[in-house]
Amino acid sequence: MTDERYLKRTIVKEVVASRFLPEGSRNLRVYLPPGYNELLSYPVVYCQDGEQFFNFGRIATIANQMILDEGAEPFIIVGVDVDLARRTAEYAPEGDRHRAYVSFFGEELVPFIEDKYPIRRESESRILAGDSLGGSVSVLLALAYPNLFHQIIALSGAFYPEARKIVEAAGDLSALSLYMIVGLQETAFKSDLGVFDFVALNRDMRRILESKGASTVYAEHDGDHVWGFWQRFLPDALRTFLRSES
C-alpha cells in the first residue's frame, strides 16, 4: 500500500507566454517539495511530456518518497505539457516546430521558472528528463544551450538519424552527463517516423556521446516502450543527479 504521505503533493499549474510558439503560450505543472520554502533554493528537473511524467510516471509521488524517506535533497519538478498531435513536430529536429520549441525552452521557459521560483542558477542544478523523443529533444536542448544544461535523463531515447547527425557534428561534450536506459524488447518500435530498433539506437548514441567525452550511466533491462517500464527506473535516474542530505 502506498504511504499516504507520498500522495500529499503540491502541484501548481502555470501558463508561460511565448513569442516563439505559434499558440503564444504553454501550460506547465510545477511540483513543490515537502517543506517548500521560498527563502531556500532548489535544484530543478524539467520534464518533457510533463502530463505523462506526472500521471503515468508518478514522478511527484516518487519525489515525495525520496525526499521524505531517503533523505534526498528537496527539488522542484517542472512538467512541460505537449499536444500529442504536435509532439513529433516539436521534439524531432526535422519537425517544423522544433526550432521554435527549443528557443521557447531555453529563452522563455527557464527564465520564467527561475524568476518565479527559488531555483539555483548553476547548470549542475538543472536536469532535463524525457522519454522516447523527449529524451532525444533533451539532448538537443543541452547542445543548443550548453551553459544551461549538462544533466540529462533519457528513457528509451528516440535517437533517430537526424538527431544522431546533430550529435555526431557536435564538438567536445565532456560537460554532459546522461542517465540512459532502454528496454530489451524495444527492437521493432513503430513510430511516426518509421520502425526502429531502440536498443541499437541507444547503443549507438551512447558510443557517439562517450567518444566526445560525455559520461553516461547506461543500462539495458527487460522492458518495452511503455511507462510501466520507465517508471520503475525513475528513482534511480533521479538519484544519479540529486544529492542526498543524509
Using the coordinates above, name the CATH class.
Alpha Beta
Which CATH architecture? 3-Layer(aba) Sandwich
What's the number of domains? 1
* Rg of Cα set: 17 Å
% residues in beta strands: 15-25%
Question: Largest sheet, if any?
Answer: 8 strands, mixed
Q: CATH topology, anyone?
A: Rossmann fold
SS summary, helix count: 9
Which geometry do the CA atoms define?
Answer: globular
InterPro entries: AB_hydrolase_fold, Esterase-like, Mycobacterial_A85_antigen
Pfam families: Esterase (PF00756)
Protein name: Esterase family protein
Organism: Paenibacillus artemisiicola
Properties at a glance:
single chain, 246 residues, alpha/beta, Rossmann fold, eight-stranded mixed β-sheet, two-stranded antiparallel ribbon, 9 helices, 10 strands
Structure, briefly:
The protein is an alpha/beta fold and 246 residues long. The mean pLDDT is 95.
